[in-house]
């Protein structure tokens, strides 16, 4: 149990990040020591642009100064190869490494993200916080082992460096080990305020607690506040998104439905739109879009915030937190459609995220649109 954890359960478009910025600004003006934990470095940069005087970053960047003394010898205790089936453990310095060694042979390039995530999240120390991209995983796996040692040592931080309030954005994607690390940043009497939406979780809802359907923040919180009245997604898309998610997590459209209409239209994907946010089921789908349309990847704006001015291609989860007037869904593969038909939770959550990025219109391939309505 983590003391003084308040969860703010907010559906898409209910202003979670905006509320974090507003509350943090007020507390900072009152002389409180504040930190904002974001899920990515890019998100931290956005927060810093709005609140330059408030410390923000990932849970790893905010704790690294305290964790690095727990790095023993070379930090390359695990090397993440491009091909997961070829991973090898070079030095067993922690019980978690032995568990990883035993599990590694079954970690082929994943077809089901959730299945691999469940295995990683079952580690006693908590999971490596990875998106299963090998190049990124290498750096992150170097970090998670000393982080676990720091937590087992009581997570020592000088009181003068602790915070009165720590905000967490996208908290539905936070593992138990990350949550414990964030909690260590507050002093006794401080508060941890976590904002998120379980329906947008990247990984399985279990997050290391088998049999549970909710992420760690929702299991550990002592107090809940539900945010409602969205400003982004109107009907009929809001109702379609709620229906898509319902078998995994009941998120009524009335909680986030905006006053304006957001239409669901058909799009064949043969020609690229001039502007807008184009979302693919996977990285491969996005790369295929570049090839099909003959686009130069370096010429496409990489930041989803520019989607209303430029053409932006992204995976669904990489666009989480973004919004655009026009959202286009790239065609789904047969495998992806089968997962949707079988009500695969990861696929349902991904489609829910995609649909709820749009303010005015969502354009979907005919086959996918027919399955949704």
Model description:
There is one protein chain. With 373 residues, the chain is an alpha/beta fold. It folds into 2 domains: 227 residues, P-loop containing nucleotide triphosphate hydrolases (Rossmann fold, 3-Layer(aba) Sandwich), CATH 3.40.50; 136 residues, Rossmann fold. It is built from 13 helices and 13 strands. The strands form 3 sheets. The protein has a 6-stranded parallel sheet, sandwiched between helices. It has a 5-stranded parallel sheet with strand order 9-13-12-10-11. β6, α7 and β7 form a beta-alpha-beta unit. α3 crosses α6 and α9 packs antiparallel against α12.
Key descriptive features of the protein:
2 domains; Rossmann fold; 5-stranded parallel beta sheet; 373 residues; elongated; 13 helices; 6-stranded parallel beta sheet; alpha/beta; single chain
Please give the number of β-strands. 13
Oligomer: single chain
| CATH homologous superfamily placement of the largest domain | P-loop containing nucleotide triphosphate hydrolases
Low-confidence stretches: 73-101, 103-138, 204-212
Whole-number count of domains: 2
CATH topology of the largest domain: Rossmann fold
Assigned CATH class of the largest domain: Alpha Beta
Question: What are the SSEs and their pairings?
Answer:
Blueprint: E1 5-9, H1 16-29, E2 34-37, H2 41-50, E3 55-57, H3 59-67, E4 78-79, E5 88-89, H4 95-103, H5 113-121, H6 134-152, E6 163-168, H7 176-183, E7 186-196, H8 216-220, E8 223-226, H9 237-245, E9 263-266, E10 276-280, H10 283-293, E11 311-315, E12 324-329, H11 334-341, H12 345-355, E13 358-364, H13 366-372
Helix pairs in contact: 3-6, 9-12
